[in-house]
Amino acid sequence: MICGARCDKQKNGVVDIKAKYVVIMERIGEAAAKSGRDPKQIKLLAASKSQTVAKIEAAVEAGVRLIGENYVREAMDKKKLIREPLEWHMIGHLQRNKARAAIETFDLIQSLDSMELARQLDREGQKRGKKVRAFVEVNLAKEETKSGVVQEELLPLLEVAGELSSLSVEGLMAVPPFRENPQDVRPFFRALRQLQVKFSGLRIPNVELRELSMGMTHDYTIAIEEGSTMVRIGTALFGPRKA
Ligand SMILES: *Cc1c(COP(=O)(O)O)cnc(C)c1O
How far is CA 224 from the centre of its chain? Predict the structure, then answer.
């Protein structure tokens, strides 16, 4: 069989990323329609941890503009090799001692989960004279193994953020528990949306909860039905991750 460049690409496992992207965008459109939403309100973030630069570039060629990485180092290395202007989001747990490197690498930190980290990000932002954009990560099911603030800690954190003028809190993020049936994740998505509504009404300075980052490969259509504005998709776009 003669297939030239196409087969070369296939060797890197990148040839079907465009097709997968198209399917995901269609499903986003369907889920939006089902819940009476404008699909333009929903952004796709490509969760690219452990995926190759070649695959990320294929996703960018297909139309991806938002990249989510879980580790500062990995994101730094990849960013050096990818020239397109993209928006990079930190979606993994962030240690305070990596705050500086994180804000130099990322456009937005989705995993703000403590007052100490909020203060550290604010200090680093101040030094650079720039606003650090962040979402607060909420641990909806109080899972020991997951980061994020529990619901009771959310308001106190938002109030602290309100006093930090170099921090801009723009949304909420959550990684709810895995359930075999994605319908069973729906109550968690609904809970995050309710927190957004509740705390948007308080008009805390530097806090404007526009975005709801929720929904992954297994459950993103349900998340969209419950108000997600940003789905973070890895496996459905790139295929399985290397162990
Ligand atoms: C890995 C990861 C994702 C994507 O997961 P998939 O199930 O592969 O779509 C989304 N969000 C976070 C925080 C992740 O770590």
Answer: 14
